[in-house]
Amino acid sequence: MSQQVRAAVFRPDDDRIERAVELLDSLGATPVPDPMLAIEPTGATPEAGEFVVLTSKTGVELLDEAGWEPGDAVLCCIGPATADAAREAGWTVDRVPDEYTSAGLVDHLASDVDGATVEVARSDHGSAVLTDGLRDAGADVHETVLYRLVRPEGAGKSAELAAAGDLEAALFTSSLTVEHFLDAAAERGVREEAIAGLNDAVVGAIGPPTRDTAESHGIDVTVVPDEATFEALAVAAVETAAPTYHE
């Protein structure tokens, strides 16, 4: 695949951005790392519940560092990365939905949580689809905010590249990465130009919620992988972009 596929990636500035860069390199793309999320832990831990829902690898790692354990609760994880991190912490993962989204977990648990207490532990930007859906299924839901997601200072070089027509692909891994990208573009005075640049490129969204957020802001999404993982997103986006730029 051509080195001309410059692909912006917005993962947090930790091992995730490093792994993303390595993956894009291995696919023959030119990575443009531009972290759009920084993590501010709250120090909170989940309350007791018959079911405990964890939605991210970050949440698992923070709880593991704090010495928290699920005990007798039915531990539910959205997605393989979260589940793998929980198993690495030594916990038994009881439930993982087939669809790695809030709606997918609601569908997975709906028939089992009527009258049960469900503790949802996640970031401050978690979707109401999860908590509202579980309540509609009859659960007594409590939510604990484990960490806040903020935009790092200096983020936005990819927005300037997009505005200049110098990106071939952009890989959005959450609705918040979309919003922070646009906020960074606006701060640099290139919001509309950056959207136009993205619409001339291949835009990948990790799942339907991220796609919907991007499209609501006028960004045309080209690729949504069948599996909601970064690897699937990167492969699909680079393969889609490569034929256009391959010489």
UniProtKB/TrEMBL annotation:
Gene Ontology molecular function terms on file: uroporphyrinogen-III synthase activity
One GO BP annotation of this record: uroporphyrinogen III biosynthetic process
EC number from the UniProt entry: 4.2.1.75
Domain Tetrapyrrole biosynthesis uroporphyrinogen III synthase: 20-233
InterPro entries linked: 4pyrrol_syn_uPrphyn_synt_sf, 4pyrrol_synth_uPrphyn_synth, UROS/Hem4
Protein name: Uroporphyrinogen-III synthase
Entry keyword set: Lyase
Domain of life of the native organism: Archaea
Top enzyme category: lyase
Signal peptide interval: none
Provenance organism: Haloferax sulfurifontis ATCC BAA-897
Family annotation (Pfam families): HEM4 (PF02602)
